Amino acid sequence: MNLTLKIWRQQDANTKGEMKTYEVSDISPDMSFLEMLDVLNEILSKKGEDPVHFDHDCREGICGMCSMVINGRPHGPKQAITTCQLHMRSFKDGDTILIEPWRATAFPVVKDLVVDRGAFDRIIQAGGYISVNTGGTPDANEIPIPKKVADEAFDSATCIGCGACVAACKNASAMLFVSAKVSQLALLPQGHVERKTRVEKMVAQMDEEGFGACTNTGACSAECPKEISLENIARLNREYVGARLSSENI
Amino acid sequence: MILDSKIPGGALEEKWEKHKFNIKLVNPANKRKYDIIVVGTGLAGASAAASLAELGYNIKAFCFQDSPRRAHSIAAQGGINAAKNYQNDGDSIFRLFYDTIKGGDYRSREANVHRLAEVSVNIIDQCVAQGVPFAREYGGLLDNRSFGGAQVSRTFYARGQTGQQLLLGAYSALSRQIANGKVEMHSRTEMLDLVMVDGKARGIVTRNLITGKIESHSAHAVILATGGYGNVFYLSTNAMGSNATAAWRAHKKGAFFANPCYTQIHPTCIPVSGDHQSKLTLMSESLRNDGRVWVPKEGRKGLTASEAVAIPEEERDYYLETKYPSFGNLVPRDVASRNAKYVCDEGRGVGATGLAVFLDFADAIKRDGKDVISAKYGNLFDMYKQITGDNPYEVPMMIYPAVHYTMGGLWVDYNLMTSIPGLYALGECNFSDHGANRLGASALMQGLADGYFVIPYTIGDYLAQTPYDKIPTDHEAFKAAEENVKSINRKLLSIKGEKTVDEFHKELGHVMWDYCGMSRNAEGLKKAKEEIKKIREEYWQNVKVIGANEELNMSLEKASRVADFLELGELMVDDALHRSESCGGHFREESQTEEGEAKRKDNEFSYVAAWEYKGTDNESELNKEALQFENVKLTQRSYK
Ligand SMILES: Cc1cc2nc3c(=O)[nH]c(=O)nc-3n(C[C@H](O)[C@H](O)[C@H](O)COP(=O)(O)OP(=O)(O)OC[C@H]3O[C@@H](n4cnc5c(N)ncnc54)[C@H](O)[C@@H]3O)c2cc1C
Ligand code: SF4
Ligand code: FES
Predict the structure, then answer these.
(1) Looking at domain A3-41+50-103, does it have CATH number 3.10.20.30?
(2) Which one of A230, B149, B222, B302 has the fewest CB atoms closer than 10 angstroms to its CB?
């Protein structure tokens, strides 16, 4: 396949960026999208030009590192996969492909397609955990958890922290990400103790990071590679209201 | 040099308890006077950093990804072992110990492995308390499965994402300590040198991957939890960034590297589809529980999966079932891998490259129905279809072995301390527990055992004997290490040659795979050594690295990692050449039984090979740590 790529190039956080056009040829449909970019980068390197910088690591859809808006959609045209799982057989010979970074105030561009998602880490640090130290924990089978609850908690826990939900949202809201963690821990008996303070602290941190408000458009869940459901946002809202009614935390 | 493994005396079951009692403790109020550096935030590093911070030490943690949550541990699929015996099927600490020693083909330390089995039970308790959503049964208790041919069901799992869930648990504990101010987290920061003062590890030099700034960090002890080195082979199931740099640069400062040639080649990976291939994807080994491995009896090059469906039974060779009637498709990883190689070498491989065998679910679907198979493997089937375009419900999968795990690593004693005082190695980065072959679901167990339950005790013993004084980062040792790092980077950027870093890396990978892969012989290894030397020489004359140091520069990052792979690759070959026996994942063609199985030479090779660096142009020196077996009887593995 021969393709035209229009890619966001930006030297660093303080420089203005622009879309630049590149041509690549002989792309095999078996290549992954990132392998196609590897081909481009080898060509650029050979010519002595700076390769296109993008985040990636596992290349199997689990680390959450890869992050590109492809033809206007976070992680590209296919549902429920990450950029690294996208294969070139999803495109046609002669296509023009637009490639941009996540765009959100809370995710500043570092270089080209690389953004800073440190805000997500800080939200987890604000309360996305159960406060247990190592050692001295009860036997793992001491508290039975109904399978249905465990499965539901697992579904929420599969979030990979990629940030596509933020990139997909017109308000750049982080609600889906935050609600997934709040849900996982609220569902499990181990998480009940800190349930109220957790949701308050995480939401406060989310607001502080400059993420937008949630207006329930559902774009986040539609683009989420792990299909984190909107149920989580509903649960977060319930948890939050419940916490505010009774807590003096914040 | 005599290697002192510091294995405590006494009966096997009592060693760890006794040791914990005998080692020195740091008074709770004094812990805050000690700084500890933890490099790596995978299962081993994150669990260590969090646990040590909880105890009161000041931690500085480092990772090269943009967040500690993205360490390569996240990709582990299958599960984690623990001797809980919840299934009442005869498991015990001793059985897990025994299986691990035997699986490692009697090339690991009894005392370490027994401790691993002992603390395995605590790991599951810890993870559940953190909110790790393991799979459960309808009664609400934890579910287990049998994994990798084990005779008992001791594997805990969270669908096909066990590593992710365990890592997120450790990451949450780490995050809590970051919020508490006890851990200072440095993401997108790569360790490029170890700093030693008076023969002890006292700090590291790092590069800030965003700004390129070279910085020094001082501490009373340094822990490396930087993962494995499978990417020496270019293609592996490891993440793209997985590398050996931290361990290798510590090795060059005096940390011995043990058993570098022990690599695990996993039998069920998606085959290479062309030159563009950047990494290989593992398909969980659990697939072999229901899938049948076969190739056509007569070679048919280019055979596709859809054509395979029409091939009649009598023209198929289910070679594992015929050759190993009692274990069949469930033989251990090394045996399954090697046999796939043999049938492909015979010209009976399938697919466009001829380097693939079928893994067929047609019979399982006929027997159990599509729904049952889908419930077990649905996500794996989807993943396979996504990558290859083939639908495994209708046509057989194609698989081929790929480099997956490295059992070798930095030599450590029972306290997990390397041969450099004050430098520790945890997780895949050390060599300690898996001998010559690792059992499925045991790497996650080892990483968390090291981080949660071993290092928090053993490091105290060392620190209790270390003065509180801090060494300022303007000390000459830091300046010298910074200068060393800067000069390597300057050199790489100044060569401005013709070939890209990836081209060299691929060349190295081919040599390693061809001569130091699934099956090795003296002649090939000697040839590999010469070739690696040539590639390395050319590298330092002709590599092309774009850009400058003072920016986010992924070509420079890669270039410095590949420079280290080019040295480590040669050591792996040296080690493979000197060990003229076969054991576990290390198969020497010269040493096989009449039936073509791996043959150990216990009289000659029952030792750990710990290599000492003597300069890039000099041969490394071999130090041996003899292995003593007092609780198990050495037998030749047989899976017939
Ligand atoms: C696809 C796959 C599936 C697997 N499945 C299983 C399984 O089911 N069960 C099982 O038990 N095992 C499994 N394994 C093996 C297991 O996942 C790994 O051995 C284990 O997770 C390694 O953990 P670790 O903490 O030692 O290192 P890693 O998780 O690799 O972490 C390394 C850390 O070190 C950091 N780092 C590295 N170098 C530097 C540097 N120079 N400077 C700063 N930071 C650095 C990285 O940023 C990272 O944080 C699997 C492996 C693979 C590849
Ligand atoms: S909720 Fe989905 S899109 Fe958002 S960070 Fe998690 S996995 Fe990514
Ligand atoms: S590179 Fe890990 S999810 Fe894409």
Answers:
(1) yes
(2) B302
